[in-house]
Amino acid sequence: DVKVTQSSRYLVKRTGEKVFLECVQDMDHENMFWYRQDPGLGLRLIYFSYDVKMKEKGDIPEGYSVSREKKERFSLILESASTNQTSMYLCASRSPAQGVNTEAFFGQGTRLTVV
Amino acid sequence: GENVEQHPSTLSVQEGDSAVIKCTYSDSASNYFPWYKQELGKRPQLIIDIRSNVGEKKDQRIAVTLNKTAKHFSLHITETQPEDSAVYFCAASRGSSASKIIFGSGTRLSIRP
Predict the structure, then answer these.
(1) Nearest one of B12, B74, B30 to B48, comparing CA atoms
(2) If you ran DSSP here, which 8-state letter would residue A53 be given?
(3) Which of B38, B52, B58, B59 is most buried, by CB atoms within 10 Å?
């Protein structure tokens, strides 16, 4: 069974704090993703990493950065948390097989509240 | 940039009836189209996917159709059951190992008993 684990299920942070959301996968997947889920807006891509130390911006990267120093771990960083970053954050990973896209597996999500 | 539009945003059907959810995509280079189901409080999980070299795929009560010319794809659920109640997301992705997955905005499906 593929396991994608996010470090926290619920998190409450203060405005202006630096926040780290961690995601670990145990299946040696090359691709990892961070999405934010808001009602009526679906899953919006924040950042994407297609391999170690490689990253690409998604649709809404402003206010976020990422780190992928090891293949199994992909971190999302909120440089200075703001209330409009209150949301559900979902991490996902997948392993493209010979350039063919395959299923992505999701973590359980982190519900972040910024007060 | 790439965009996936999904309709309707909410759908209520009588148990036993069919449900159809439609998506359109903007990136003509997309060739992989997965559908995910997210039950309340749970993570999204893949229920079916289709690649651009086929027009239709079925798995028991679930089917997906793809029209590459029109850049449309649809999810069909027949003989709906209470456990089909969930949020469904369509997505599109290009065929390379460094491709993003772009999701639609989701459809909340409710099955009326």
Answers:
(1) B74
(2) T
(3) B38
Spatial CB neighbours of A77, under 8 Å, sequence gap ≥ 6: A18, A19, A20, A21, A64, A65, A66, A67
Question: Taking a contact as any Cβ pair under 8 Å apart, which residues of chain B between 11 and 70 contact chain A?
Answer: 31-32, 34, 42-46, 49, 51
What is the torsion angle, in degrees rounded to the nearest 10, for the CA atoms of residue A42, residue B81, residue B72 and residue B33? 70
The phi and psi torsions of A83 (rounded to 5 degrees) equal -60, -30
* Maximum Cα–Cα distance across chain B: 44
B46 chain-A contacts, CB cut-off 8 A: 103-104
CA atoms B78, B81, B85, B91: torsion sign: negative
Beta strands in chain A (DSSP E): 4-6, 10-13, 19-25, 31-38, 42-51, 54-57, 64-70, 73-78, 87-94, 105-106, 110-114
pLDDT digits (tens, 9 = 90+) for A42-62: 999 999 999 898 999 999 999
Task: State which amino acid sits at residue A62.
Answer: E
* Whether A43 contacts A35, CB under 8 Å: yes
CB–CB of A46/A34 below 8 Å?
yes
Which of A30, A101, A108 minimises the CB distance to B32? A101
B2 pLDDT band (50/70/90 cuts)?
confident
Neighbours of A77 (CB within 10 A): 15
Q: Which helix (H) or strand (E) holds B107?
A: strand B107-112
Q: What one-letter code names the amino acid at A12?
A: V
